[in-house]
């Protein structure tokens, strides 16, 4: 350790934090990795979380209790009440509890990041790190892919797809969407198999891929059940963190403090540390250290569904049948941003998730808005680190999002009603979706329906936005340094300027990989 303690303290052992900590330790830095949830070896992970179908674990209270943040809620829209917002807790973070989707954003996202002043985050900058993190079974020899990295990339063969997977693929291809065998190719669009971070049918987390092999390094210390209260400063410089272990608070010191606690808990730590909107902080009695828009840019992917009464042949056969294998990335119109919508297959509905292996037969086609304009808000309810923040996603609060999601829902209904999907349907789609079909042709009524029913994809981002330091929305600069402060960085999905046009896990890992090379 240096005279100040550690070289680097990383707060959060999730997708970005695990990659950052392991790679930094490999480079010789003395790293303390603090995780609010449990620390455990790969072999100790609850077996339910290894299943190809995350519903197996989510329906098992013994599996979810220790690795999911309990008491964390969010309202999805301004017309919805607060409801649970699933986030991973413990080593591996949300990579331990998500849908195992290893999809990259299209490179247009990073072109946009560069336009927003995020120097060093262009497609040419990030592609090497996407390649570095992966071990792609099918396309690893392509120049924009990789082999031998910590994250396996697997695609389910078509003869093992679920019935709804096959139905969505047939319907979309018949409607004129193109086939794209590799959705992770830089500008891919159309019908694609989902890339999955699994090996031999078992989930591989960042705890497995990064931390398990790094634990033998003498300069990496991992501490679980360590709840970080706040960052400790001397003047404008971060010098450590106040952390609570077994009810006792202590301070750990480092030359550099990195918050990698995710889009919910990184901003919460900043707010408790006096970094955030001044009026909010003063209302809680927190001294203002830096007046920045922390918590003000929250985004997720709003998602609507068309329920499908499916045939016995199309239904899942065992609880471990994979819940989704197919996506369709597309652009909603000539004036829309590229790849702004995504169709997804769901081989089972929520009902069938709870009753897999019984007579329940219900799947769904889903559509989510890949690129959103609406922004949500995260605030503290108290300064107690054990209290969860208050989250209002405010999805669809921007008319542009409603307009494009209307297009997506109507197109989704056409696919569900098409001849190409008919072979998996048994029963009336209209009866199954009575409330939706009653308002489908009226924009205003459909908007009300979507605001009342839309879900999110658990892809929270952008609560500590990266950008040009002169931009009023910016919290961290392109080196992930918190504006106006020294020795403090945020490195996780909270820094994304906007939610990526893809599931967020792979991009969060990439951020950890890239920034491990850029830390001073």
3D architecture notes:
With 520 residues, this protein is α/β, with parallel strands linked by helices. It is built from 15 helices and 23 strands. It has helices at 15-26, 55-58, 61-64, 108-115, 123-133, 163-174, 206-214, 262-272, 278-283, 350-354, 399-417, 429-432, 434-439, 443-453, 505-518, and strands at residues 6-11, 31-34, 73-74, 83-84, 134-136, 151-155, 190-193, 195-196, 198-199, 202-203, 220-223, 226-234, 237-245, 248-259, 275-276, 290-291, 303-308, 326-330, 341-346, 363-369, 377-379, 390-392, 488-490. Helix 1 runs parallel beside helix 7 (206-214), helix 1 (15-26) runs parallel beside helix 15 (505-518) and helix 5 packs across helix 15.
Summarize the structure.
The chain is of the alpha/beta class.
Helix content: 25-40%
Q: What distance separates the N and C termini?
A: 16 Å
Question: If you compute it from the alpha carbons, what radius of gyration comes out, rounded to the nearest whole angstrom?
Answer: 22 Å
Q: Output the structural class.
A: alpha/beta
Question: What is the count of β-strands?
Answer: 23
**Strand-residue proportion:** 15-25%
Largest beta sheet, briefly? 7 strands, mixed
What's the pLDDT, averaged over the residues?
95
Summarize the helices and strands and which ones pair or pack.
Blueprint: E1 6-11, H1 15-26, E2 31-34, H2 55-58, H3 61-64, E3 73-74, E4 83-84, H4 108-115, H5 123-133, E5 134-136, E6 151-155, H6 163-174, E7 190-193, E8 195-196, E9 198-199, E10 202-203, H7 206-214, E11 220-223, E12 226-234, E13 237-245, E14 248-259, H8 262-272, E15 275-276, H9 278-283, E16 290-291, E17 303-308, E18 326-330, E19 341-346, H10 350-354, E20 363-369, E21 377-379, E22 390-392, H11 399-417, H12 429-432, H13 434-439, H14 443-453, E23 488-490, H15 505-518
Parallel strand pairs: 1-2, 1-14, 2-11, 5-6, 14-23, 15-16
Antiparallel strand pairs: 3-4, 6-8, 7-18, 9-10, 12-13, 13-14, 17-20, 18-19, 19-20, 21-22
